[in-house]
Structures are given as C-alpha cells and as structure tokens.
Amino acid sequence: xxxxxxxxxxxxxxxxxxxxxxxxxxxxxxxxxxxxxxxxxxxxxxxxxxxxxxxxxxxxxxxxxxxxxxxxxxxxxxxxxxxxxxxxxxxxxxxxxxxxxxxxxxxxxxxxxxxxxxxxxxxxxxxxxxxxxxxxxxxxxxxxxxxxxxxxxxxxxxxxxxxxxxxxxxxxxxxxxxxxxxxxxxxxxxxxxxxxxxxxxxxxxxxxxxxxxxxxxxxxxxxxxxxxxxxxxxxxxxxxxxxxxxxxxxxxxxxxxxxxxxxxxxxxxxxxxxxxxxxxxxxxxxxxxxxxxxxxxxxxxxxxxxxxxxxxxxxxxxxxxxx
Length: 323
What we know:
By secondary structure, the protein is an alpha+beta fold.
C-alpha cells in the first residue's frame, strides 16, 4: 500500500543532482516514519521495547540501507532501500511469533494476501510445466486437476479478502467515518514524499510552468521507463500542478507561451493544448496520440480526500513534455 514515478554536460549534471535530492528525500521520509507513525509506537509498546531506543535503531538501519543503495539509479534505489528496511523487525531481538502478534492488522492482512499470491504463482509455474506435455499421463492429469482446484480456492480466498476490505471501507463511509487513521497518515506521508521528490525534478520539464502553481507529482523519464507505463502507451514524462488561479487565466498564459499548440475545449471546464492534434480529436479515439504528443491539459480542481490537491486550488495543470 505504501509505495512514483517518470545531451549536454549541464543537463546530465542537473539530472544527477535531482536524483541525489530525491534519494535524500526518500531517506528523510523513511526516518520520519518511525518518528510520527502511531503504528510504530503501538508495535513497540506491544513488544515491550523502548520507543526511543527503537527509533534510534530504525534511523541507524535507514542510514545503513541508504549507504548501501544510494549509488543505484533512482528506480532501483527505491526498491533496494525498501527491501533493505524490511529486515528491520528481525533486528529487534524478539521472536517471530511476537512480531506476528504485534503486527498492525493491516500488515497482517497484506501478509496473508501476499502469501496467498506466492502460493498461486508457485502452482501456476507447476501447471505450466505439466501443460508443456501435450499428452499428460493419468497421474499428471490428476495433478493438473488438483492444481486447478487449489488455484480456484486461493482465488476465492483473495476475493474474500478484497470484499472484506471494500466492505469495511463502505461501512465507514456509510457511517461518515474516516478511513483508518494509520492508513490515512501513510497516504499523507507518501504524498508528502512524492511532492518533495517531484520538486527536485522540476528543472527537467521542458514546457513552460505556470508561475502561480504547485507541483503535485512528476513522472520523470527514469520513472516512466521503470514503471511499465510505456507498455500501456504512456510515452512521455509528465507532471501535474495545482493553481489557485482561474482556468481562463491559465489558458491565456499557455496560449501566449505555446502559440503553435492546437487548443480544444474538452468539456465545459477543461481545455487541451497539443503540439499537434487531429481535427476530429477525442480522448476515446486518440488516446495513443494524447499519450505520445507534448500537451498541456487544464481542468477544474476537484475535492480530493487524500489532501493531494491544496484546498485553495481552482485548477489542475497536467504537462506532458518531450525531453
């Protein structure tokens, strides 16, 4: 649940500085996790470990993991430092049963789901091997039938977990209750980290940035390449901004800054400026063109429960650019 995004010597230098800043931001957020997370405090009390001692151990572990992984490219760095931090609970000197007993319920549910997924993947690999034989023996066919039955049971189990999670969210919404405070705080920390990391990469954006705006998220070229987004047609790095100014003011700014871009009114409060645009352009029929062409999309800001969009925002600006 916790876990974004996507030549001259000068540009290379700037890229390296941005990556370094992003990694330091990630380290800060990892350390902050132990300082502010209620789940961390609750787990330490359950385990009978001094919170101050645990926080110092956690920070030391984070610094150690950072030292081991900081030379990696940004996408690999995020995966590597995350995997390194996963071993922290084992360094507390308590039994696995105690860790399981004191784990937050959300973590336990995620662990159960992950274990189920691992079992499915193992069975699917075995099934692939059996299917490689065009004429399976009676014994092999029996095993095929057994695996199919086990996969169906595991799939049903996962659906039950999903249904329970959604039902819980629906019940809380119906009662006017907020989501799990721990989960909400996790989201806020993740969003804060995303914004902080995105701020350090603004210099990579090659299209004009509206002056009175705040960056929310930036899918850089490196992130785009490592995220798998290219496989679904997203071919350009992109950034999203929020502004308290009117859509009309922002549209006027971009029409002056990008006079060669074609302008189309997508909805009553949504405008698209594209480097090149088919006369009959529509989002549904020209999605590939949209993803592969530099553009600026200006639309109304919506009430966002995650708090990602500032409360005073009137407009969202999405910028897809070519490096």
